[in-house]
Amino acid sequence: MKTTLLASVLAFGGILSASAQSLDTDSIYGIQDVVVTGTRNAADVRHLPMTVTVVDNAKLTENNRVSILPTLMEQVPGLMVTSRGVMGYGVSGGASGGMMLRGISSGIGQVMVLVDGHPQYQGIYGHSIADSYQTMMAERVEILRGPASLLYGSNAMGGVINIVTRGMKQDGVRTNLNLGAGSYGTVQSEFSNQLRKGKFSSTVAGQYSRSDNHRENMGFEQYGGYVKLNYDLNDNWNVYADADVTHFNASQPGPVSAPILEADQWITRGVAEIAVENHYVRMSGALSVYDNFGRHKINDGYNPALRGPQANFFRSKDALTGVSLYESFNLFEGNRITAGFDYQAIYGRAWYTDRATGAEVINGPKQSGHEHNSEVAGYVDVRQDLLSWLTVDAGVRIDDHTITGTEWIPQAGLVVRPISDGQMRLMAGKGFRNPTMKEMYLYPPSNTDLKPERMWNYELSWKHRLTDLGLSYGVNLFYIKADNIIMTVPTGGTPPMRNVNAGEIENKGAEVEAAWHINGNWALNTNHSYLDMKNPVAGAPTYKGYLGMNYHKNAISVAAGLQQVCGLYTVNADEDSKEDFTLLNVTVSYQKNRNVKLWVRGDNLLDQSYEINSGYPMPGVTFMTGVNLSF
Fold first, then answer.
1. Which is nearest to 507 in space by CA: 531, 491, 487?
2. What is the Cβ-side half-sphere exposure of residue 130, based on CA atoms within 13 angstroms?
3. Under DSSP, is residue 3 helix (H, G, I), strand (E, B) or coil?
4. Which tens digit of pLDDT belongs to each residue from 494-547?
5. What whole-number distance in Å separates Cα of residue 621 and Cα of residue 602?
C-alpha cells in the first residue's frame, strides 16, 4: 500500500512537471472559488493569504455517510479525526471524535467548529461534540488551516471547520430519502426537503441512525432534525432563521484490557439562529443572534472486578449565546475593508444527581458560583490589491474576557500572482484560547489564575491550476509556535495536581494536494501531510496520505479512497503506542432511474488491525448497502 501511494505521488509529480497551463480557482476539488470563512464576506480565494479547503455537498454525500467527519479526514491534509467504532463518537471517558489540525486539538478547544460562522462548542469543557455535525445540514464545509482568531476569537487558534448550511437557490421542490443498513446492526436514514417559491425558501431535514458496533456494550443511537427558513425582503436584503437539534445515546465498553459496564451517555445538543443579511455591489454584511446549547447525563460506568455500579449520574448543561455584527466595504478599486463586533455569553453548570431518586447530590462538583463568563470583541481586516499581481491583507482584533482580560490579535499576509493561474501566499497570524470553566473552576486541579493560550503560525504556500488539463495542485509549508498551553502538573501542595500555563507547542510541516479531472468519466485527487512535533501528542500522525478515485459511466458510479496513516501516537509521546495503517474504502452506486439510486459501501476492505484511541481496536471489514430516493 505504501508503494501504491508513493507511485501515485510520483505520477502526479510527473504530470505537474511536464505541464504549465492555467488556473481559474483555488479549490482542487472542482468547487467554486468563493469562500466566506476567511473573510466573513464572500471572497475570491485567489486574493486571500490564508489556506482554505472547500468540500462541497457532492463530495460529502458520495459515500452515503451520516457524519461529515470521515470525509473531511480524507479530503483535508493535516486533519485527523479520532474514532473507535463503526458509528458514533460519544463524550466523556473513552470518547473519540477529536479533530487534530496540524497537531492542534479540538479536544481541548484549540480548533473551532462553526455553523454559518458561529462558534459551536461545549460551554464547560470548551470542546466540540463530534456527533452533532451531520451531512444533512451541510451545503459545503470550509476548513481554514491556521489561526482564525482574528475573525472568530478564542478557540480558533489552530483553525476552524465552518459548516455552511443548505439553502434552495431556484424555484421548485426537491425531496430526498436515503436509507441504509449494514454490519453490526447498523442502520441509517436521512430525509430532506427543500423548497423555493418566489422570495421564500426552506430546508427541512431529519435523520435516525444506530449501531451495535463491533464490541459488546458499545451501542449507539442518534436522531435529530434541521430546519432553515429564508425570506428575501428585496434584491439586497434577506432574513433567515435556522435550528438544528441532535440527541444521541452512546455506550462505551472501556479499553480491552480493562472493560467496564454501564458507561452510558445521554446527550442533547442544539443550535438556533436568526440573521438579517445585506448584499450590495460595494458592501455586504449581516447581523445575527445565535444560541448553542446542550444537556448531558453521563454514567461513567464501573469495572466489576474493582467496584460496583455508580451511585450518581454526572449532569451538566451549557449555553453559548452570541450576537455577531459585521459589514464589508469596497471603498475603491481592489479594496475590501471588513469591520465587525462580537459578543458572547457563556453559561455552564455541572452537578451530580442520585441515580435512584434523581435528587441533586449536595457535594457534587459545583463551580463556586462561576457559571457565567462573557466575551466582547471588535475587529477590522483590510485587504488591498496594490498591483494586478499583488494583494496585501492585515487586520487586528481586540478581545476582552470577563476573567482573563484583554487580548490583541494581529494577522497579516500577502498574495503574489506571478502568473494569472497561480498564487503564492505568505501568512503570519496569532491565535489564542481562553481557559475553560472546567480548567478554572471544576474539580481540584482548577485554577482561577490561568491566562489564555497563545500561538503564532507562519505559512508559505503555492496554488496552481492547469485548466486545459483539468489539473490543479497546492503545496503548503508551515511553522507553529505556541506557549502558555494549559497543563495539569504536580505541585507538591494541596491539591497535589494543578492546572498551570506551562506547556509549549512547536510544530512544523508540509502539505501537498492535487486533483486531476482526466475526462468525463475519471477523476483523481490526492493529499499528503507531514508533521514534525517537538512534543508529540496523541491523535496527530507524522504522515497522512489519501488517494481518491471517481469513475462514472452511464448509470454506474464508483468512489474509492486509499488512506495511509503513519506514526500515529494513541498515547502522548509513547513509542510503544505508535500505529501505522492503510485503509481502503469503496462505494459503488447504480442509478436505476432518475428517482432511484442503489448503493453499497465497503470500509477497511484490507481488513487492517489498528487503533486510533488507545485500547479501542477498530473494526475490520464492514459493509453498508442502501437506496437513495430523489423526487
1. 531
2. 29
3. helix
4. 778 999 999 999 999 999 999 999 999 999 999 999 999 999 999 999 999 999
5. 7
